[in-house]
Each structure stands twice: as C-alpha cells, then as structure tokens.
Amino acid sequence: MDLINNLALGFSTALTFANLAYAFAGVLIGTLIGVLPGIGPIATLAMLLPTTYALEPTSALIMLAGIYYGAQYGGSTTAILVNLPGESSSVVTCIDGYQMARRGRAGSALAVAALGSFFAGTVGTLVLAALALPMVELAFKFGPAEYFSLMVLGLIGAVVLASGSLVKAIAMIVLGLLLGLVGTDVNSGVARFNFDVPELADGIGFVTVAMGVFGFAEIIANLEHKGTRQVFTDKVGRLLPSREEFKYALPAVLRGTALGSVLGVLPGGGALLAAFAAYTVEKKITRNPDPPFGQGNIRGVAAPESANNAGAQTSFIPMLTLGIPPNAVMALMVGAMTIHNIQPGPQVMTSNPSLFWGLIASMWTGNLMLVILNLPLIGIWVQLLKVPYRFLYPAILVFCCIGVYSINNNTFDVIMTAAFGVLGYVFFKLRCEPAPLILGFILGPMMEENLRRAMLLSRGDPTVFFKRPLSLTLLLMAAALVVIVLLPQINKTREKAFQEGD
Amino acid sequence: MKINDAKDFWSGVMFAAFGLFFVVFSQRYDMGSAARMGPAFFPTMLGGLLLLLGVVTMFKGLTTKSAASKVDRFHFRPLLLVLGAVVAFGLLLRPGGLLVALAALVFISSLGSDEFRLRDVLLLTIGLAVLVLIVFIYALDMTVPVLPAFLRT
Q1: How many domains does chain A fold into?
Q2: Cα B76 to Cα A3, A222, A398, B10, B107, distances in angstroms
Q3: Mean pLDDT (chain A, rounded)
Q4: Mean pLDDT, range A350-371, rounded to an integer
Q5: What is the H or E stretch that residue B93 is in?
Q6: Could you tell me if B118 and B85 lie in one domain?
Q7: B34 touches chain A (CB under 8 A)
Q8: Contact yes or no for B86 and A171 at CB 8 A
Q9: Most Cβ neighbours (<10 Å): which of A18, A256, A477, B95?
Q10: If you write DSSP's letter for every residue of A128-175 in order, what string do you get?
C-alpha cells in the first residue's frame, strides 16, 4: 500500500539520530517557551525560527513543528496551573483546568491533557498522512482562479475566528495583504512602497512583522499588567487520573479528537476553533455533569486539549498539500519553508518526498516525546513559572533581536521590528486582533500573483472566478461563511464565546 | 459629535489612513489593465477597500449604541524602554559588537519593569552573554562581531 510505503519512508527519515534530536530539541524548547505565560505558539515560533536557519530544510521543519506543538502543550500547562492562557486555544482549558488545580487535581488535569493530546496527535498524524495524497491530486486540478478563490475562503475563515468586530478583522487582513506587497513586484521588477530604502526592496521580512506585532507588543502589554498570579505549584497532586476521571475523560478525548481532526483541515480552522467547538459540544451533550462545567469537570480539559492538538496536526494538510496556510501559525511555517528555498505547494510531496513524509512521521515521534517529557518533568515547568517576569523578558528580547539580525545579517531589520512593536501595541490598545494580519501578510504576494495570472488567462474577464466550477464552489463556501456569521443568532453566540474567552 | 466607541473610532481612523496611503502611493506606479495588471492595480484595489472598511469602522464607533468605551491609557514607559532597548541593540551591534549591544539591550529593557535591581540585572547580563556566546557563536557559528570595533583585529 502506498500509505504504508510513504510512512515507512517518513519514519526512516524521522528516526535518524539527527532528526530525532532536532525533534526533541524543538519539543523541549517549544514547551519551555510555551510554558511562559503570555507567549503563545506564534510568538514562540517567530522567536525561535532563526535558530533553525543553519539546519538543513528537513531537520529545520521537523524542529519547527516540534516547537509548535511543544508551545501549544506548554500553553495548556500554564492554563491549568496559573489560569493564564498562553494562547487563545488554551483559553477554554483554563476554565475547568484551573478549577481542577484549585481542587488539588492539577496532576490529573495535566495527565489527561498530555495523554489526550498524544492520542489526538496520533490520530491527527494518520489523518494527515491519509489525506495528503488525495489532496495533492486535487491541488493539481487547481488553476490560478481556484487558488485565488481558495485564499479568499481561507481569509474569510480566519476572520470568522478572530475575536471582536468582523469589519475590523477584515480590515486587519487587508492591511496584512498590503504590507505583504511592499518590495519588488515580481512581474514588473518595480520596487513598491520602499521609500528608496534599499533594505525594503526585498520586502518586509515576515519574522520582523510577527516578532514585532506578537512578541514585542505582548511583552509591553505584560509589563503594564502587574496582576499577581497565583501558581498552584505545591499541590500538583497525583498524576494518575482516578478510574472515574478516566471513565469521563475517555469519550471526551475521542469526541475532541474527531472534531479537531475535521475542523483543523478547514480554511481558517486549526487549534483555536477546534478547542472552542469541542468544549461547546461537551457542554451540550453531557447530562448532569458532576462537577458542573466551569467548576473543574475533567471533560472540559480532555475534549478541548485533544481537539486543539488534533486540529494543530490536521491544519498542516492545506499548508503542505496546497501551499495555502489555514491560520497564522501555518503562515509562519510557509515563511520558514520559503526561507529554506522550498516553495510550499503540491509539488513538495513529489520533489521532496523524504522531507514531506519525514515531517509527518516526526509529528508522531514528537508527540510521543511530549508525553515522555512533560509528565515526569512537570516539576521543572512549575519552577519555570516561578521565575519573575523581570528576568524573563530581557532574555526573550535578546533572543528575538539576535534572531532577527541573523536572518539577513542586517541591523535595519532589528530596528524595523521595533517599529512593528509600536504598531502591535497600538493594535492591542485598539483591540484589533493581529493574527489575521500575519495570514494576510503571507498570502498578499501569492494572492496578487494568482489574481494576475487568472485575469491574464481570461483576458481581463473577472467572471472567470464564477465560471470555473471549483472556483465557484470555493467562493460560495466563503459567502456562506459570511452569511452564517452575520445571522443575528450565531453572531450573538460568537460574541458570547469570545467574551467567555476574555 | 460624540464618540461612543473610541476603540472602534480610532481603529477606523488608522485603517482609513493606511488605506489612503496605499491608494495615493500606488499612483506612482503603472496601473496596467485588467488583463495585464501593473504594479499599481492590486494595491490600489486593496487600499480602496481598506479605506472603505476604515470609514465604516469609524462610523460604527460614532453610532454604536452599546456602552461608551474609551481607549485604555498608553503606558509609554515600557513601550519606550522595551523598544528603545531593541533600537539601541540594532544601532550598537555593528560598532560595539554583540557583548556591548546585549548589555545595552538587557539594561535599558530592564528599566521598563517596576522592580529594577542593579545586581540582578548585572547577573542576568552576564548569564545571557555566556548563553548567547555558547548557543549562537560556538554552536550555530553565527557571523556577528562579538567585540567592539576598536578591539577587533
């Protein structure tokens, strides 16, 4: 069978000593940074991306993927122990996880989160491997018109998931698309919006944008909240869940995994949507929950944690097969691949099979390492939470600055990052969610390129997007998403869901 | 006119300003035609859309019926010190070398915290310098000047 052969190739790549070591390093460092409150996977990835430049592409991507799910997992630990979500997808974990910690059951919550995540990660990896081939075949049917429509759908999907105002989220995407256009236009060779600054002729580096808008702005925002945080460090408790907890958690893990695997593939989907949806489903279908949701029900940890990990894995599908990132984290992965001179898209699987399958297989080994790493080492992460912030943030800044510099050996980039830090802080103050901006930023040049090609092929006829059936389907899906979100009933629940998150 | 939701209003102003900037600035480049788009075509379209979205957001901020909201106070101290430290790092790296730039970065950014303690900051600087030398210079073999220009051979 093809799938078996491909996975065999993948494991032969992932199980080499070097790649195991890089996956381990990624998972370890990812967890380390992810545990720190207020630093989510996007900021972690942006910060650590430069450390992988020196590696060969396969190892670099394996390490980055490890950083991603490590950071995601680290975020849940913080959510449970400190009630501070490291990132939006652990917001729901906070609700019941922290309550469990207050009741002295932090250990079970952490164990269920780890085991649920591992199970979900395994399933997610299999789904990814199984869907990769058919998706690549579909991708070869895509022309520029389809790609353009797919990106529209992806961006609309991202908008639906951003918290707060829809119009503002759309505006952030458009701003991201525009910022992505800065630099030399590939078709005409004209340098656009560069103000005659030679460094801008190559465009703004996406690490610069991501690090400034997420990393620096988050640090400044953290410095102004001086809330004391209560860490439940001394009573993590027994790690092994009781038989009763296990009985409740198991079906929740299965449901969360199924839901997460499906939602991760959708454009705009991924960990966040999966976690929210899984929590809502658990709340709806559990009769007479004891303790009630919001007061430390283990299902409220098991379902969203499994779902966000499954979603995190399957969101690699559109990125790896179509080259279209479904969310901001995948946008960063696309950026990372481009830096290593790999153009993401359906050709990666055929031109670089060992990278493609190796990366997929490494996700499973990486998830296994996460469980092995996290359960026994939980004490170390707890200690890390005790390190005062005044030591952490200068250290984070040092790694960010050296990282940005090392991309092009250019100090101009470092100063640009500070400028984006100002912009990110303004976004934070105006409650403009920055994730759609990053997605737009990566998609900007791709969108322009495909729009141009589609219009050239149709000799300037814009109806081409509606005449080709695949493209029409994608656009109709995007329109349906907009309509659904604008329905008053849904809009209300959506706002409520995000308020619960705040 | 009374502003009801200041966050929305000012976000709208920001988006409209960015939109206007891109529309105006794009006109320096060739527009082309729908079939053969020039470098100005897509940015003009998007800039116009952003301008429109900005105006809509501003309007929403003026008319919204929900409770009035203000923009939270800007904390300029951490903003200036953290980003100033980054800029200082960028400016000092070439002439001063990695160690000087790192010390400036750690020192200036630490002033942004309320609990600045000189001894701790010195220890942190030394610890980070050692770590960075091991990770970036010896392990990753990064090409970056370590010592100040006048000490280099």
Answers
A1: 1
A2: 56, 13, 21, 18, 17
A3: 81
A4: 87
A5: helix B76-110
A6: yes
A7: yes
A8: no
A9: A256
A10: HHHHHHHHHHHHTT--HHHHHHHHHHHHHHHHHHSSS-HHHHHHHHHH
φ, ψ for residue B2 (rounded to 5)?
Answer: -100, 135
Phi/psi-derived region of residue A196, left when phi > 0, alpha when psi is between -120 and 50, beta in every other case: left
- B53·A171 Cβ contact <8 A: yes
Treating both helix axes as pointing N-terminal to C-terminal, what angle do A57-82 and A299-314 enclose, rounded to 10 degrees? 160
**Cβ–Cβ below 8 Å for B105 and A398:** yes
Helix (H) or strand (E) holding A184: strand A183-184
CB A438 within 8 A of CB A332: yes
Q: For residue B28, tell me if it sits in a domain.
A: yes
Per-residue pLDDT at A457:
86
Average pLDDT, integer, range A440-461: 86
Model confidence pLDDT, tens digit, residues A25-48: 889 888 888 887 666 777 788 777
Q: Tell me: the pLDDT tens digits for A228-279? A: 455 555 556 666 777 777 778 888 888 889 888 888 877 666 677 778 778 8
Most confident of A10-14, A100-104, A420-424, B118-122: A420-424
Chain A contact set for B19 (CB, 8 A) = 174
| Contact call for residues A90 and A35 (beta carbons, < 8 A) | no
| Inter-residue contact A184 to B29 (CB < 8 Å) | no
Q: How far is CA A54 from the centre of its chain?
A: 23
Range of the domain at B93: 76-151
In tens, the pLDDT along A382-399 reads 777 777 778 888 888 888
Mean pLDDT on B18-40: 86
CB A177 within 8 A of CB A384: no
Please tell me the predicted confidence (pLDDT) of residue B46.
93
Parent domain of A315: 2-501
**Contact pairs from chain A to chain B, CB under 8 Å:** 189
Averaged confidence pLDDT in chain B: 86
Per-residue confidence (pLDDT) for residue A161, from 0 to 100: 62
Task: State the total domains in chain B.
Answer: 2
Angle at B94 between CA B90 and CA B100, to 5 degrees: 75
Residue B128, pLDDT above cutoff 60:
yes
Tell me A52's DSSP state. Answer: G
Residues B135 and B106 in one domain: yes
A452 chain-B contacts, CB cut-off 8 A: 37, 42
Residue B58 sits in the same domain as residue B121: no
Q: Of A48, A102, A98, whose CA–CA distance to A76 is shortest?
A: A98
CA distance A391 to A325: 35
For residues A217-226, average pLDDT: 79
